[in-house]
Structures are given as C-alpha cells and as structure tokens.
C-alpha cells in the first residue's frame, strides 16, 4: 500500500486539529461548516484508518488521547506544509496582470518563498504574486530590465545596478552517501575538497559562486565529476555514491535527519552565504514589495 493510501486526507486532519483546539466535536463541526454526525463519522473513520484511538469522548467534550496529541502535532506540520504549497502554486499560476512580480534563485524559491507567501497573504489577503525562478545572474538581469519588481538571490555582494538588503542566510554543506569513505572521517580540509572531483551545480549558480570563492586560496575547485541540472538530480547522484556533493543545507535537511546522507565538516572553510532581496537602484520597495521584504527579514533564522 502506497503512502497516499495510508495517510489521511487534509480535511480529516484539519477536523482533528479543530477538535483538539476547541475541545468538542460539535464546536469543530460548526467552525468547519459540517454537521456533528458527519464530523463524528469522519473522526471515527480517521481512527479506523490509523488504528489509533485519538479522542477520549465524554458528555463534557472530547479530549485528545496521548496518541491524539502526538498525531495532532504532526498533522499541524502537514497542514502548514499544504498551505505553503497552495500559496506557492498560486504564485506560479498568477504570472500576468496587475500583481507583484518576483524572481528568485531556486534555493529561496523552494525553501523560503512558500512560507513568506503564506505570511504575506495573512497580512494582505488576496495578494497576487507572480513567481519565477532563475540563476542569480539571471535574477539580477531580470530585475535590472524591469521584468520583475523584486528579486531574491544568494551571494556575497549586491549585484551591480541594484540595491538590496540581507533577508536570511544559508550554509553550504559537503555531503556523501553513508558508504562513501569520507562518511567515516571526522572531516576534510579545503585542500582535499579542492582536489576532489565533486558533484556540483553548474557555473553561474549561487552554490558554485560561494564554493569557488571559498576554495580560491586552494587553487579553486577541481573539474566537477557531474553537473546535474537540478538539486534533486544532484542528491540522487550523491545518494548513489558517485562522489561528494556540495549543496544548500536547506535542500538536504530531510536526508541528513534520516541518515540517508552524511555531512562532512570542512573546518577551514566558511561556506555561509547571505540571501538578499534586490530591487532597482534608487527605488525603494513600496506597498506589497516592501511588505514581502519585511516579512522575509523578520523570519530570518
């Protein structure tokens, strides 16, 4: 049975969260606009599907069991992620017309922008944002050409012809498959990294810019073993044991947490990089663009 058959639908999870928050199936049903019998049946079906008792029911209301409390915490993460996905999809659909035009590097677009868009919709309900992705150099050119109102890039400097501000930070990590010889080492130095053919994104990417600068004192990077077209392809190649890879820590968080990839410390290199909002020089962001920049800065880890 696939995960789609095992995991409850979002409606059932939202109902469970409402019952836990309100302490009553009836009150949760009223909030969500369904009848109490329908809500009770859906909770029962959810319990049967999971094989868990989620609520302790009494005449005074419904309280979560220990399993129900744990599941509600995980359910909240799923619902939050689904909300972010919906906001991101809406931004990709709304490419034309009177709306905020944003272009972002893939790291920002994939790992930060969905949360920012959810927060922006909470501040300005109904806001329309058209989102595109591009390499950092193309982001800068798009904003300079007036084809986007706001850009988000990684890099040590604000691109020429633009103004900007740091809104977040990111860190590159060297990762290997668990069976790779480096997985058993305490780390490597910059010289070893520079001498090793790595799995890297193509030249012009934010990752290559930061890594090339960090390894300049060691003669720069060796010719890459592979230059995958996407982060997903890069991770797949590293997981297959082809070679070490260098990638944003945000992009491999799940693989590192699950032990599918192993981080390799590089003690003598600083692989941090700032993430910037950029806009045409001499024009400060206004309205929705200003709000988005402010939200990004306030969410900075």
TrEMBL record:
GO terms for molecular function: DNA-binding transcription factor activity; transcription cis-regulatory region binding. It comes from the Bacteria. Keywords: DNA-binding, Transcription, Transcription regulation. Coiled coil: none annotated. Gene3D superfamilies: Periplasmic binding protein-like II, Winged helix-like DNA-binding domain superfamily/Winged helix DNA-binding domain. The keyword Metal-binding does not apply. Residues 8-65 form the HTH lysR-type domain. Belongs to the LysR transcriptional regulatory family. PANTHER family: HTH-TYPE TRANSCRIPTIONAL REGULATOR (PTHR30126), HTH-TYPE TRANSCRIPTIONAL REGULATOR CYSL (PTHR30126:SF39). This is HTH-type transcriptional regulator CysL. The lineage of its organism: Bacteria, Bacillati, Actinomycetota, Actinomycetes, Streptosporangiales. The gene is cysL.
């Amino acid at each position: 049975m696939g995960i789609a058959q095992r995991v409850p639908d979002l409606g059932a999870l939202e109902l469970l969260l409402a019952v836990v928050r309100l302490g009553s199936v009836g009150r949760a049903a009223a909030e969500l606009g369904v009848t109490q019998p329908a809500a009770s049946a859906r909770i029962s079906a959810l319990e049967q599907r999971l094989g868990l008792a989620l609520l302790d029911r009494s005449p005074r209301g419904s309280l979560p069991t220990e399993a129900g409390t744990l599941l509600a915490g995980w359910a909240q993460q799923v619902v939050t992620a689904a909300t972010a996905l919906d906001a991101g999809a809406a931004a990709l659909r709304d490419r034309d017309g009177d709306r905020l035009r944003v272009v972002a590097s893939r790291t920002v677009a994939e790992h930060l922008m969905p949360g920012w868009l959810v927060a922006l919709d909470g501040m300005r309900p109904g806001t329309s944002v058209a989102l595109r992705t591009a390499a950092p150099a193309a982001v800068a050119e798009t904003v300079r050409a007036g084809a986007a109102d706001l850009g988000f890039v990684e890099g040590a400097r604000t691109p020429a012809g633009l103004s900007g501000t740091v809104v977040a930070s990111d860190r590159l990590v060297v990762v290997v498959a668990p069976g790779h010889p480096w997985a058993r080492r305490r780390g490597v130095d910059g010289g070893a990294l520079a001498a090793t053919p790595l799995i890297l994104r193509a030249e012009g990417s934010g990752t290559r810019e930061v890594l090339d600068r960090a390894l300049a004192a060691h003669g720069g990077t060796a010719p890459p073993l592979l230059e995958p077209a996407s982060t997903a392809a890069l991770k797949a190649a590293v997981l297959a044991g082809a070679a070490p890879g260098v990638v944003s820590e945000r992009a491999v968080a799940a693989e590192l947490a699950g032990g599918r990839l192993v981080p390799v410390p590089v003690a003598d290199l600083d692989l941090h990089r700032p993430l910037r909002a950029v806009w045409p020089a001499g024009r400060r962001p206004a309205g929705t663009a200003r709000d988005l920049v402010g939200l990004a800065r306030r969410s900075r880890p």
